[in-house]
Amino acid sequence: MAFHLRYFQAGQFIFHEGEASDRAYIIEKGSVDILVADNQEVIHSLSAGELFGEMGVLDQSVRSTAARAKTKVTLLEIKPGQITDRLTDTDPIIQALIGVLLKRLRALLPKNGEQQNDDLLSHVASVIEQSGLSKFRLESELRTAVNSEKVQTVFQPIVDLNTHKVAGFEALSRWFHPKLGVISPFEFITLAEETDMIIEVGSLVFSRAIDLLSQLPESVFISINVSAKQLNSAEFLPSLSQRLKNQGINPARLKLEITETMMVDINQAATWIDRCHQADFLVCADDFGTGYSGLRQLLDLPFDVLKIDQVFIQSVLSNSVNITLVETMVSLAKKLNIQLVAEGIEDKSQHQLLKDMSVDYGQGYYYGKAISIPDILAQKAQSFKK
After folding, report:
1. Which residues form the EAL domain (predicted)?
2. What CATH number was assigned to the domain covering residues 5-129?
């Protein structure tokens, strides 16, 4: 398993004072006593949902306390990298302040029978937010889900507005959590991007997309979101190119989508796009027109495809301003020889209006929800653009 549950009987020590701080824990079930004074004095008792053992991991010091199972306990193990990698990415001033805070907290820990500082311990407990603990737990569970292929890939149709035939798909990830149900891609992809898991998740998605492309007509493409971590990896594009070459697939059939947040740094985004073009991949601007993306990005960055955000599409019939904005995007994109995909099309009237505006492709529930590879292959004979 990618995450580890540890089990201890009542009275069993989890770690001792003075030992190396090689991991932290979240209590899943049961309770744990924290001890000082050579394991003689209990200074605090922790219960399910609480974190312990993190101080030594943060400042890379030995254990300043001991931990003993008060009852039979189940613990979720948090590896040092899950904590220290996030700390490394923070501002150096924040890192220094955390170091100072930890030293002061250690100095205030009761020693050899001194009075316990309940106010301090209560304050420390309040600082450790439950949302943070839930994030650690979810991260560990995501690692397991990826390794056991519990993260599924589905594909939403992208339709040629002139022929009404499927021209391609967007690959989307779905995580079906055994307890929480379907976890939104926004939540777990964001979590994956904070760690190296986005590389693993991405590799899984690309493998499934390449497998599907190998079974579809050569005119059909698949769009996939890529992250900054993937594009910054020296191995990413060469590896992807080789995988496509092994299957005899034209790289232009795999369109790489860059999200709006990746366009903040124009120079960096231009470098990424250039690398993709050198490897013969087409690049899409995802969710165009919102947040950081705008006319400057369209003029300065050599995109091949522009995906108009559904915010504009869903009110295009009732909002004259949005109609004007979409018309402007279409006009400029045509002059720059950029293909257009309208996202979030939900009915025939939206489809017809965007078709009349000369938008190339549409995506949304009007054409169909995201479906699995077996479902796509079952209907490929009658659905795809020739």
Report:
1. 135-384
2. 2.60.120.10
